[in-house]
Amino acid sequence: MEQQQETFDVIGVGIGPFNLSLAALLDTQDVKAAFFEQKSEFAWHPGMLIEGTKLQVPFLADLVTMADPTNPHSFLNYISQQGRMYQFYILQRLDIPRREYNDYCNWASKRIESCRFGEKVTGIHRLEDGSHRVDVREEATGSEKSFFTKHVVLGTGSTPALPKALQGMPEEDVFHTADFEIQRHTCRDANRVTVVGSGQSAAEAFRELLKEQRTCGFSLDWITRSPGFASMEESKLNLEHFSPDYIDYYYPLSQEKKDEIFASQGLYYKGISEHTINEIYNMMYEYTVGGEELDVRLLPLTKVTGIEQKDGEYELTCHHYQKEDTYSKRTDKVIVATGYQPNVPEFVHDLSDIIEFDEYGRFKVTKDYRLVEKGENPYDIFANSGITHTHGVGSTNLGLAVFRSKVIVNQLLGEEVYTVQDSYVFQSFE
Ligand SMILES: Cc1cc2nc3c(=O)[nH]c(=O)nc-3n(C[C@H](O)[C@H](O)[C@H](O)COP(=O)(O)OP(=O)(O)OC[C@H]3O[C@@H](n4cnc5c(N)ncnc54)[C@H](O)[C@@H]3O)c2cc1C
Predict the structure, then answer these.
(1) Which atom of ligand 1 is the closest one to the Cα of 42?
(2) Domains of the chain, each with CATH number or no CATH
(3) Whole-number Å distance between alpha carbons of 322 and 302
(4) CA 262 to chain centroid
(5) DSSP 8-class letter at 123
(6) Among 11, 22, 45, which residue has the most ligand 1 atoms within 8 Å of its CB, making it the best to mutate?
(7) Per residue in 214-273, pLDDT tens?
């Protein structure tokens, strides 16, 4: 394995929006940094870049603005460089298209020298002096290299979660919404299509299929185990849960209490935006004008407990848990919208000699985003993702990316480069 002799101050693992924000803020500092991403270029949930979908936070939650509005990697600078400032001004919207957010991040990632693509981190090793060796595989050639660094920042994000009951089927027929844009064309030739789940991704997939259902002639079912197709809690005061103040309140609670609170906050992040529900309802209303029958069913309270391949179709076992009724349903395609789970690579678990995990195998994290070490060490491994269990419901919210970057930058540089205020919101959670 080739070994690079230069030592970095920090190496980032993964380039999603969180680590990209950190890379962007570090770009104007005197720091030797490298961020590695396994994909060949920046791509933010490519399977869900559906036309017409919007970023669910204002564009002000870009990579840098909330720390430093003058930073050249801001969204407004991107708009300006695209020659779209006047159009954007007339657009008068804070909620930019999801595709534009992706394009902006891609633009920024190409300008930030520390960002390296097509290189997968395969191992992290603690060295005797407390620094780290990071092993990297170049995806195109398979060649392997090692880099040395003081600090490491994990930003490996999340991976699609497919429930056991729906695993093991051909992926062109039973696929996660993460692959929706890649596979949706296959639904056009199907007789029956089923969407499972009732979050934002499920609703967007259902809405897109609803648009095509009558012309393509497939029947469409939307099944969820939830009691209803509930809307996300998006009131302004509730959005204050996605704030540094809420982290201040939440972080010191016992882990048991945190898990209990988080389990009760599903609609803060898992529901459907009211806008999407309205669109779906309005479409169904219009499609049924004049008594036209819609070959569409919305089935709440129903758990899909199994799937079997039968006669070239799929038989879903469904359980209505209030009526205690189990029945089967045939379909040709299943779109699984059951969310995401933290992506903690195996090499992080291999560090169990030096870092602490809780009883559920989740790493422990300090309030300022360092993995809790078993002993003293001059350098840190930071967690920029996978911290919902320690930092709460806002952990994956893009509105907190820049705040987290500020806290990490200040530690990496050993000084308060960015001010971190005491209070950001109106309410007190204490
Ligand atoms: C469809 C969708 C829409 C969303 N929309 C919003 C929204 O509008 N507003 C909001 O606040 N939140 C939104 N979220 C939630 C959240 O902001 C995103 O999930 C966001 O992408 C999280 O960013 P991240 O940087 O933590 O991880 P990710 O975006 O998951 O990026 C992690 C990166 O790490 C790379 N990686 C993993 N392992 C390695 C390795 N070993 N070596 C190198 N690279 C590696 C992966 O390839 C990936 O590119 C959305 C989530 C989804 C799924």
Answers:
(1) 49
(2) 2-157+343-413 (3.50.50.60), 160-232+270-336 (3.50.50.60)
(3) 9
(4) 17
(5) E
(6) 45
(7) 999 999 999 999 999 999 999 999 999 999 999 999 999 999 999 999 999 989 988 999
